[in-house]
Amino acid sequence: MSTNKKQKAVRLALLLGLFSTLGPFTIDMYLPAFPEIVEQFDSTASLVQFSLTACLLGLGLGQLVMGSLSDGYGRRNPLLISMAAYVLSSLACAFAPNIALLIVFRFVQGFAASAGIVISRAIARDLYSGNELTKFFSLLLLVGNLGPLAAPLAGSGVLSFTTWVGVFVSLALLGVYLLAMTKWSLRETLPAERRSPTNFAHQLRGYGLLLRDRQFLGYMLAQGIMIAGVFAYVSGTPFIYQNIYGVSPTVFALLFGSNGISLIIGSQLVGRMSHRLSENTFLLFGLLLALLASAAVIVVAAVQGPLFALVIPLFLFVCAIGIASTAAFPLAMESQARNAGSAAALLGVIPFLLGAVVAPLVGIAGEDTAVPLGVILLLSSTVAILAYFLLVKSKRVAPIASGTDSV
């Protein structure tokens, strides 16, 4: 890229990255309040974790809807409507009278937040392709990955002077800011002549074509299954760190937020080295690193090792996610110029749907063991590697995805 193009790319990445952080903030900011919410509603850890599951379901299903809508109506208008809905649903969560309604409102909140994730990525594909897409996506992730770093710290800070209700009020204010950014700072990137029909049958056919693309499916599953493991980590560590190891909400926020650094390290490694090594090489390395790190988590959990011995492999696991997801996204999106919204939606929906399944399973053995977390991480890493080898490596050249590079 020229200097001028780099400056424009950085400015756009900063703007789109803000929308990408909406997902992590919606998921992570209330995590330090889990024990408080259990006490407030006289509920259980599993039910409070189910409010996370509802949010993940909303984030996943919402991407399917928002991706198709943005292919048909452009990127800007669906984003405006979604940000308004996010503000209202966040306020509804803040004043939910019981755990059941909190779960319902969390689903709506996640559904609205999904637009920020999927549309920001579709805009990236509207404007870039090839190696430029890889480099821009790494910039986008550099900003977006600050969300997991900042969200629990912000949540802990809010909880230091108010209750969990203040967390959702803060999220509503974040939504107001992003609504204003959409209105006054974001231009339309999908011209009318490039838009797809918006009828439901056409949308289903578009998703069907994508799912029949063997390499797209392989990259989608390799990335999605790995990221689903992160949601087990998100759901389990509030109880593991605070109940088993006895850390304070502030220390938990620091430990949890440190993994935002590991995501940034992983994503920037791919962005800076993509001219030397292929994306497929980085993807395979990330998958293997995750497998080794998750095996270490099981060992530490089984012997009830010290806190640092658990934090280190978890840090490496999340770093592997940063590597694998940054490499897999441009590989999957390269040939999807006309269906960028739908393709980005499918790439986003699998992690959230699978995450919604695994999040409650972390607490199935109670709040005093980390073994289920290790098992889920190991299974997700193993299945992701199998998906990559069976669907991508077994068929290196596909008619729809011939633009991907090889190892």
Q: What this model shows, in words?
A:
The chain is an all-alpha fold. It has a single domain (18-183, 208-393), classed as Up-down Bundle (Growth Hormone, Chain: A). It contains 16 helices and no strands. The protein has helices at 3-20, 22-28, 34-40, 45-73, 76-94, 99-127, 130-144, 146-159, 164-185, 200-212, 214-244, 249-273, 279-302, 307-333, 340-358, 371-393. It is globular and about 55 Å long. The two termini are 24 Å apart. Residues 397-407 have low confidence and may be disordered. Keywords: Cell membrane, Membrane, Transmembrane, Transmembrane helix, Transport. Pfam families: MFS_1.
Concise synopsis of the structure shown:
The protein is an all-alpha fold and 407 residues long. The chain is 79% helix and 0% strand.
Helix run count: 16
Order of helices and strands: HHHHHHHHHHHHHHHH
- Given helix and strand content, the structural type is mainly alpha
Look up the CATH topology. Answer: Growth Hormone, Chain: A
- Give the CATH level 1 class: Mainly Alpha
Helix content: over 70%
| Outline type | globular
The unreliable regions are 397-407
Number of discrete domains: 1
How many angstroms separate the termini? 24 Å
What is the CA-based Rg, rounded? 20 Å
**Beta content:** under 5%
> Average pLDDT, to the nearest integer?
83
Number of strands: 0
Largest sheet: none
CATH architecture: Up-down Bundle
Question: Considering the protein shown, what is the CATH homologous superfamily?
Answer: MFS general substrate transporter like domains
Keywords: Cell membrane, Membrane, Transmembrane, Transmembrane helix, Transport
Organism: Paenibacillus soyae
GO molecular function, one term: xenobiotic transmembrane transporter activity
Protein name: Bcr/CflA family efflux transporter
